[in-house]
Structure formats: C-alpha cells, structure tokens
Amino acid sequence: MTDAKRPGRLSTLAQSTIGAKIVMAVTGVILVGFLVVHMLGNLQIYLGPDTMNHYAQTLKGTPALLWGVRAVLLVSLVLHVLAALRLKKINNEARPQAYAVPRRYRVTTPAARFMLLSGLVVLAFIVYHLLHFTIGATNPADFNLHEVLDVATQTWVRNDNEQLLAKLPPEMVRHDVYSMFVRGFTNPLIAGTYLVAQLLLAMHLSHAVASMLHTLGLSKGLDARQRNITIGRAIAAVVVLGNISFPIAVQAGLVHL
Amino acid sequence: MSKTMTLTLQIWRQRSANTPGSMQTYKLEGVNEHMSFLEMLDVLNAKLTKEGQDPVAFDHDCREGICGSCSMVIDGRPHGPRKGTTACQLHMRTYKDGDTITIEPWRAKAFPVIKDLVVDRASLDRVVAAGGFVSVNTGVTVDANATPIGKKDADEAMDYAACIGCGACVAACPNASAMLFTGAKVGHLVKLPQGQVERRGRVLRMVEQMDREGFGACTNHRECSEACPKEISFDAIELLNREYMRAHVTGE
C-alpha cells in the first residue's frame, strides 16, 4: 500500500463504523453529563420558589456560559443523531435478507434492540420540552410569569403587569420559573407526556451508558463489563427517578403555588 | 442401547445465489442419539439421494470443531442451542423424539448464499489478508524460547487465536457485524511481540476492509461472544475500539 493511500487520517476515522461509534459515545458522555446536572439543578424545586427562581436567574445572568453550554449540547445532539442514523443504515444494509426463523437471542435486552426507537421518542420529547419550558411556545399563558423585586423588603413578588415590567431595569425582574413549572405540570396530559418520555429515556440510558463505556475502551474484562452495566442502569434510574418526581410531586400537590 | 428418534426438519433450500430460496419440510426417521448434527444431515442426504432428490448442501470439513466450516443457524441460533459448540460437535441426544428443528444459513450481505446452507465467507479472509499477519523473512526456525512472552499475554493471545473464523458472530449479531472476529484477529497479534511492528497499520487496514465488505457495526448486544463456539470474549471488540483509536492518535 502506498503512503498516499495509507489510512489513518481523521477523514478515515470519521468514515469508519468504529469512528461513528466513537462519535456516538463521546457525544453520549456529554449528553448524559448534562442530563445529570439538569436533574440535580431542578431538584431545587423542592426548596421553594425563591431558590428555584434565583437558580434560573443565575443561569440566565451568565449568558456566555449558558449559550456556550447550549451550543455544545446542540452540536452533540445533532452529531449523536446523525451518527445513529448512519449506523442504522449501515446495519440494516448489512443483512438484506432477514432470517426465515426469528433468532433466539441469549443476552441482548429490549433496551439495546430498540435504541433508535427510544432515541427518536426522546428526541421528539426534547423538541417539545424546549418549546414548552425554554421558548414558551406551547403554553404561553403558563410561561410568561415574572417576579419583581420589592425594594423596600428586598423580596421578590409576582407581578405580570407588562407595562411595569417593560419600565423596570432588568435586574429588578426575573422569570418566575417556579410558577411556570407548577402550572406546566398541573395539566395531567402534560404530566403524563413527561412521564412516558422519561420511561423511554430510562430505557435508552440503561443501554447507552454501558455501551459508551465499552466503545471508549473502558470495559476490559467480564467484571468491568458487569460493573459498567450496573453503573449505566444506576445512572438511568437516578436521572429518570429525579425527573419523574417533578410532575408526580405537582400532581400529588406536594409542590404547589 | 441407543435411542432413535423421528424428527421434522425445516431446511432452507436455495438452488443458487441468484434464485430465491424457501424453507422446506422433511421428515426423518431413525435418527440415532449418538449421531452428530452433521451425521444426521448425512442420513437425510442419503435418503434424499435414494429418492432422486437434490441433497442439502452444507459446509463441513474436520467435523471435530476446529476448522470453522460448519455454518448453520439451528432453531434461531448459530451452531445450535449448546454454548461453545460447533454444529459438528452438537449431538442428537440434545433433541428428543418428535422435535421440529429449523436450519438456515448465516444471513449477512457479506456472506452471500452459494447454495442451501453454504455461504461464501471469503469476506473474512479478505479482512485477515488486509493485515491479520506478521511479516517475517523465512529462514532457519528460531528457538521456541528465543522471544520471552509473559504468561498473561501468551494466554490472552491464545484465547483470541482460538477464533476459527466460522462467522457465527456475524450470524448472531442483530447488525451482522464482524467486530468480534476482527477484534480477535487484531487481539491475538497485538498481545505478542511479533505483532508490534505492524500494529498500527494492521488495525487501520483490517477495519477499513471490514467496513468495505459491508458488515454492520457493533451496538453492544453481546450476542456474538455468546454464540461463538470458541467463546471468544466480548473484550475483543473493546480491544478493537481501543487499538483503532490508538492508531489514529499515535500517527506515524
């Protein structure tokens, strides 16, 4: 083989199946990391409106960090989905004629076999979730809620008078995320949608985490592999139990206005 | 006294690569429990030949579990129900009188059917030819102990070298991926001093060839190592990923 045709450059990495798997794994680490932080941050809903709204205000008060993280997440998500679709196409084409008799699998799980399905449902959910709670397009009446700083008492008070909000300096107005959160989950249909999406996320993560650790070469040996499968399921359980506690807590009246 | 049984066999029959195939049903009486699975097929073929029918084509050679020729999916599992066992080492005592057994070929784009249960597995040979070797000048045989190799490395190399290239991993994989095979071939040489010189180019070229053959990609179902008659560890794929990344990072 001549040197000019020698593989090993970044372009061959990107084109190879293993390269696509590495893209899946690296973007997966970023996305799972975000999921953990996102869930932990939202746990502050249990500490009351002031803590939650202060948290939201802090995030929005550091736009460089906020948009930096959003950009990384968006790029990761796009690459993750594109690599998944590419791998799915390669894998479908690798067996043009199916087995006449259904195969009897020994160790694979439904989570592993339906990764694309659970992934696409979660993707659709992410779009809805952004429209719902980040952009406020689906339920604007529950989204456009604000608090105004009462200078005399130094406390934040709900006030949705748009003329007043427009006149006040930005540091005296903050988004009432707590009320948005509670009103958002009061609708049982929306709460139910979140629950279903989170169950599919749990399914996705239960295979995803062990899978990415393996792809990145961190599962040498049977013990390490078993440990990574357990770690993956634990992360899936913690993230999703935390997340589903929110609509359940609102529906049960534990978190209220 | 050995038992005999009557079986219903559903076998994939396909005249040639370009004609569509289908499952055909055969009734076979007097199957001895001590027969191997292939001997049972021999009995069926003798009967078909006597009746003037075309015998079932299937790959076989050593019939002692080391050549990797026999390749059939039995009741939805490559090489049949027993772990770590090739189809030729599967014995009819595994079955009981009245059983129905389905038999079909490996299914993968890279393994086109030649006839009935025989598939063309030259794609695996081409993956090995792309880099699964060490280049040495031939001459006088060196002393066996001239190159010391640690016990652990020697053991791991031997475990990977146990791959017989039968293709059961590809057949078992939901994605028809050959990464367990390729990983075993890369792994067995990377564990040995002789494999170091061509280490980087080997993994790059073998993966490139593997992709070119139209095998799928691993999504970590782990069905391959479960189906492997030589029980090659799933570590082979983890090793392949690591070697492939290392080859890209180290450069030349």
TrEMBL record, chain A:
Q: Where are its TM segments located?
A: 21-45, 65-85, 114-135, 189-213, 234-254
Transmembrane is among the record's keywords = yes
Entries under InterPro entries matching the protein: Cytochrome_b-558, SQR/QFR_C/D
Provide the alphabetized UniProt keywords: Membrane, Transmembrane, Transmembrane helix
NCBIfam families, per the entry: sdhC_b558_fam
Protein name according to UniProt: Succinate dehydrogenase cytochrome b subunit
Q: Which organism is it from?
A: Nannocystis pusilla
